[in-house]
Amino acid sequence: MDAGTYTLDASDWPYGSSSWLIGIQATLTPDDGSGQTTAFGPNGYGPRPLKAGTLRLQIFVNTTGEVDTTFTPRLYKLD
């Protein structure tokens, strides 16, 4: 991805966007070799400036029981 300011959202947050029961974690490996960082965590989805690099998203479910929802993450570049 290109450097810029990004925000992350999803189509349906069954427990809210700051819940540790279901969410998204994203790590960024910058092209400049400065080391992998957490780009987005379960309690903060942006907006934030990110360096150019490879972004990996992981959808996590940390609950017992069924989660019956369609969950579609979306990354938006703001600048």
Number of strands: 6
The biggest sheet, with number of strands, parallel, antiparallel or mixed sense and barrel status, is: 3 strands, antiparallel
Mean pLDDT: 87
Helix content percent band: under 10%
Unreliable stretches (pLDDT < 50, length at least 5) are none
Strand order of the largest sheet: 4-1-6
* Radius of gyration based on Cα positions: 13 Å
The succession of helices and strands, N to C, reads EEEEEE
Approximately what portion of the residues adopt beta-strand conformation? Answer: over 45%
Shape, please?
A: elongated
Distance between the termini: 13 Å
Specify the structural class.
mainly beta
Account of the 3D structure:
Strands 4-1-6 form a three-stranded antiparallel sheet, with no helix packed on it. The chain has a three-stranded antiparallel sheet with strand order 3-2-5, with no helix packed on it. The protein is built from no helices and six strands. It is 0% helix and 47% strand. It is mainly beta. Strand 2 and strand 3 form a beta hairpin.
